[in-house]
Specification:
Elements (H helix, E strand, L loop, with lengths): L3 H5 L3 E6 L2 H9 L8 E4 L9 E4 L1 H4 L9 H7 L4 E3 L3 H16 L5 E5 L2 E5 L10 H16 L3 E6 L2 H8 L7 E3 L2 H10 L10 H9 L5 H4 L4 H8 L1 H9 L16 E12 L2 H22 L1 E12 L4 E12 L2 H13 L8 E13 L17
Parallel strand pairs: 2-4, 7-8
Antiparallel strand pairs: 1-6, 1-7, 2-3, 5-6, 9-12, 10-11, 10-12
Helix pairs in contact: 5-6, 11-12, 13-14
The structure holds 2'-deoxycytidine-5'-triphosphate and magnesium ion.
Magnesium ion binds next to strand 1.
Length: 368
């Protein structure tokens, strides 16, 4: 068992690249610098969603996962660029090499994001803030990109910190300020609190960390199940999760709990399309394709079932994922049943095949 003094001594850095895909595109295509840019998606009529937007496009309100049609309405001069996952993967390996100079305790969360435990850094620097500065500088010098860093004594606070001064930020939240910081944090920012839980909390009059702290641990457990015990700790700034260097992503999924039970097959299909879209975005984000597609259904009586199907080849495309999920749903004879949750997960991963071409000249840019 870890003692609390051990936990206090941890030095955790969370690094997250700024506007990752878009910054890589601007780095490699000088003509795109300073321009409003969306990676992924396509102009009106061709569908698709934005993977990420450059900071110039964000000023117009363009965001990740926004339909491209909406992005175009908000920002008519936006340029859509086809993603080059092989390049993003290469950059990702580059930043991990930089991290490894300081520590082997690296837990990547996606291509552009990782936790580092630098409690005992390889170079004996000692100061986590100095290490974060050096890492940011190395990323600038060697990869011509910027990253934001959060430094704290645990994973949750470090992750919140890295997001506070984007882009090119470095934020330190030390032990003496954690509690007051957590008290001001809105509930939806707490780790593990999704849309539905946040709504439930707000209905209970819980809006911030300070509100969460008023609930005894048993009440938290009663209202929010096992996660409640975690919320109890995290709103006090306590997060004992270790940085897990060898954690491999074994599955990627998404699910949604509905405000009303679904009874119509058409509604179920619409929700499966949305959930599949999120899953496909996440697969791209991680550079992964999966062979097994699993559908999870929770009925209004909380009974839960899963059904899966394995493909001959790994897939990551929306039509295949959503069609397979719909077939799995149909096989459960959903007509007349009341469904409160649907989820889609891909597992059984293979490497993604590099499918995109390099854009060497702006004329070659895919304006699709
Ligand atoms: N991504 C995606 N679909 C999403 C979210 C993200 O394809 N719904 C991809 C594109 C991003 C990359 O993952 O560039 C990293 O995601 P982040 O959430 O870290 O977003 P960015 O790095 O683009 O921007 P920020 O500066 O806010 O971190
Ligand atoms: Mg990022």
């Amino acid at each position: 068992m870890e003692t609390s003094s051990n936990i206090q001594r941890r030095k955790i850095i969370h690094i997250d690249m700024d506007a990752f895909y878009a910054s890589v595109e601007q780095r490699d295509n000088p003509e795109l610098r300073g321009k409003a840019l969306a990676v992924g998606g396509s102009p009106e009529g061709r569908g698709g969603v934005v993977a990420t937007a450059s900071y110039e496009a964000r000023k117009f309100g363009v965001r990740s996962a926004m339909p491209s049609k909406q992005a175009l309405q908000l920002c008519p001069e936006i340029i859509f660029v086809r993603p080059r996952f092989a390049v993003y993967k290469e950059v990702s390996q580059g930043i991990r090499e930089i991290f490894r100079r300081y520590t082997d305790l690296i837990e990547p969360l996606s291509l552009d994001e990782a936790y580092l435990d630098v409690t005992k850094d390889k170079l004996g620097i000692g100061s986590a803030i100095d290490i974060a500065k050096q890492i940011k500088q190395a990323i600038k010098d060697e990869l011509q990109l910027t990253a934001s860093a959060g430094v704290s004594i645990n994973k949750f606070v470090a992750k919140i910190a890295s997001d506070m001064n984007k882009p090119d930020g470095l934020t330190f939240i030390g032990p003496s300020t954690i509690e007051s910081f957590m008290e001001k944090l809105p509930v939806e920012k707490f780790f593990g609190v999704g849309k539905v839980t946040a709504e439930k909390m707000k209905k209970m009059g819980l809006f911030t960390g300070a509100d969460l702290k008023t609930l005894p641990e048993d009440d938290m457990h009663r209202h929010f199940g096992k996660a409640g015990r975690f919320y109890y700790q995290i709103c006090r700034g306590i997060d004992v999760r270790e940085v897990q260097p060898n954690r491999e992503t074994k599955s990627i999924g998404a699910e949604d709990t509905f405000a009303y039970d679904l009874t119509e097959i058409d509604e179920m299909y619409i929700e499966l399309d949305k959930i599949s879209k999120t899953v496909c975005n996440r697969l791209e984000h991680h550079g992964l394709k999966g062979r097994t597609i699993t559908l999870k259904i929770k009925y209004s009586d909380f009974k839960q079932i899963t059904r899966n199907h394995s493909m001959a080849q790994p897939v990551d495309d929306l039509p295949t994922v959503s069609e397979t999920a719909k077939k799995l749903l149909l096989a459960t004879e959903p007509d007349g049943k009341r469904i409160r949750l649907l989820g889609v997960t891909l597992s059984n991963f293979g490497e993604i095949a590099p499918k995109q071409r390099r854009v060497d000249h702006p004329d070659q840019l895919f304006l699709f």
